[in-house]
Amino acid sequence: MTTFETTLATMPDAPLASATVDASTPPDARISLRLTRAVWHRNRDVFLRLWTWLLIPNVVDVCLSMIALGLGLGAVVTGFGGAGYAAWIAPGLVVCSALFSAGFECSYGTYYRMDKQRTFDAMVATPVQIDDVVLGELFYGAFRGTVSASVIAGIFGAFGLFDSWWALLLPAICFASAFMMSALAVTAASVSPMLETLGYWVSFGIFPMYWLSGTFYRPDDFGQPLDTLQLLSPAYHGVSLARHASGTEGAVLSLASLNHLGVLVGIAIVGTWSSIAMMRRRLVR
Amino acid sequence: MPPSQTPPPIADAVIRARGLAKHYGGRHAVDGIDFDVLRGECFGFLGPNGAGKSTAMRMLYGFTPRTSGELAVLGMDVARHPRRIKARLGVVPQENNLDPDNTVWQNLLIYARYFGLSRAQARTRAGEALELFALTDRRDSEIHELSGGMKRRLVMARALIGDPELVLLDEPTTGLDPQARRVVWRTLRELRRQGRTLVLTTHYLEEAERLCDRVVLLDHGRIVLAGRPAELIDRHAGELVLEADLSDIPGRAFTDPLPPVTAAAIATSELDHAWVDGTLTVYGAGLQRWKLEQLFERIPVPDAAIRTVRRGTLEDVFLRTTGHALVEGAEA
């Protein structure tokens, strides 16, 4: 029994199904913005469904930070200008809230959808490709971060913690920062062997960025090597930008702003590239 | 070749694979297979776990890139035009990857967006799909509230959202109870009536016999046998099969050889047989019934053996062809 009828698997006489494209048609696009939006839309639907659970804790956390540090610690801290310490930390807290939301959403949330819920597998069985999935996740991280940061900015603004109308730019700054953070977080998720190992991303990614973001101190007062270290914190650039916009320090229309924005965008681009590349590496098998 | 084996002349090849292979390092999950799936047929990949069925399936929708070979689906190269192909495919994966963050209804509507359907279209299709799979009254349920059979049906309903010409089903009924399995079978037949082409993997041979026009048996990534189920059974197992289970006889071990008198009788009878896990199976392929019964009578087996004469199945075909059982631990 060595020869079997394996030829019946093929039907050489049958013509090949006529294709909607011919051989000269270029390959399908790697990225589809429409489908990226569809992936984002799925996450946004879930957000709208669960928003009280997702949004309120974020807002409460940041408000508590403001009470403890801005009002509590601020009562004994001097040297932060007329508006005081609370106004000094306000823009940083706003940006960092966006970073936290995005940093957790696109690490734990993304990992959960990818590995536990197998949502990505379900998506890529449709015209959606992995690149669309990753971009959809990044835009969702940015969206979520921007929403919670904007609510917080609104509260701080109502208490008069911002000194400039440029503070209306805060949501845009938060969006850029959160997008960048999402890209780093998805990269972390894509290389994490287990859900638990994402703790490294929190301890060595999110928190160092937060503490070295310049939110709680005057970044210019740092000596070496901390001075360099904080430059490496992507959050620092978002916080500095927010500080320019909120009128606590520096000017919005300045070379320094442009610099910070450039770094944010640069990291976002590299992070987007790496998150797509690493996710492909992980999921395409 | 009898006329029944002639392929329908009008149907075109919806899938054409030549030398299709997927290697993971040194492991050859799919090791150079050739097959065509014709429009409107139900085509089955059979084989034990790890035979390469699921890998082949994932290659069909571009999830797993091939190592070598050619693969055209709906006339297009999977590597070049995955989006266009997937727009016309429905995929039922092996595991139920429904979206637990959303309700039944939202699962369908969200999926519809990936196919670019308008809201109105999505609602119509989702309604029809729920109707077909008898899930209309579970429209607003959460996913975790559904039974296993319902989840499976919802995955299938979801696969139909894009109105696919070709539906890929990776073990559609694994883990379902017999009743739920029948419901799935019924809907698969309905899909065929609607003119859709089905490709499924299964290790339930009864399922393949009932549903598939043609099957290929995969073993270690290769096609070892292909054809129509009934013909394969006729040719390789026969109408009747004798089975003698010696495994429960006290004092015998699974690994003990066939008793010498039995072995000798089989050798002189020139009947084909398999000896796996303490069970002797003798195939009657190509013989008439009365002749077979006569021959079977002459094969001596220990009195304590459980002796059965039954209809040949695809399981026998597989056992005979590969020398090992299709489902580990399954009764042959």
Largest interface: chains, residues each: A-B, 47 and 61 residues
How many strands, what sense, and barrel or not for the largest sheet of chain A?
Answer: none
Q: Structural class per helix/strand content of chain A?
A: mainly alpha
Number of helices of chain B: 11
The main pleated sheet of chain B reads as: 6 strands, mixed
Termini gap of chain A? 35 Å
Entry summary:
The complex is a heterodimer of chains A (285) and B (332). Helices cover 68% and strands 0% of the residues of chain A.
Model description:
The complex is a heterodimer of chains A (285) and B (332). The mean pLDDT of chain A is 92. Chain A has helices spanning 33-72, 84-116, 119-124, 130-158, 170-191, 198-211, 226-232, 234-246, 255-283. In chain A, helix 1 packs antiparallel against helix 2, helix 2 runs antiparallel to helix 4 and helix 5 (170-191) runs parallel beside helix 9. By secondary structure, chain A is mainly α. Chain A has nine helices and no strands. By secondary structure, chain B is of the alpha/beta class. Chain B is 33% helix and 26% strand. Chain B contains eleven helices and 14 strands. In chain B, strands 6-7-8-3-9-10 form a six-stranded mixed sheet, with helices on both faces. Chain B has a four-stranded antiparallel sheet with strand order 2-1-4-5. A four-stranded antiparallel sheet of chain B has the order 12-13-11-14, sandwiched between helices. In chain B, a hairpin with a 2-residue loop joins strand 4 and strand 5. In chain B, helix 8 crosses helix 11 (314-322). The radius of gyration of chain B is 23 Å and the shape is elongated. Chain B starts with 12 loop residues before the first strand and ends in a 10-residue tail after the last helix. Residues 328-332 of chain B have low confidence and may be disordered.
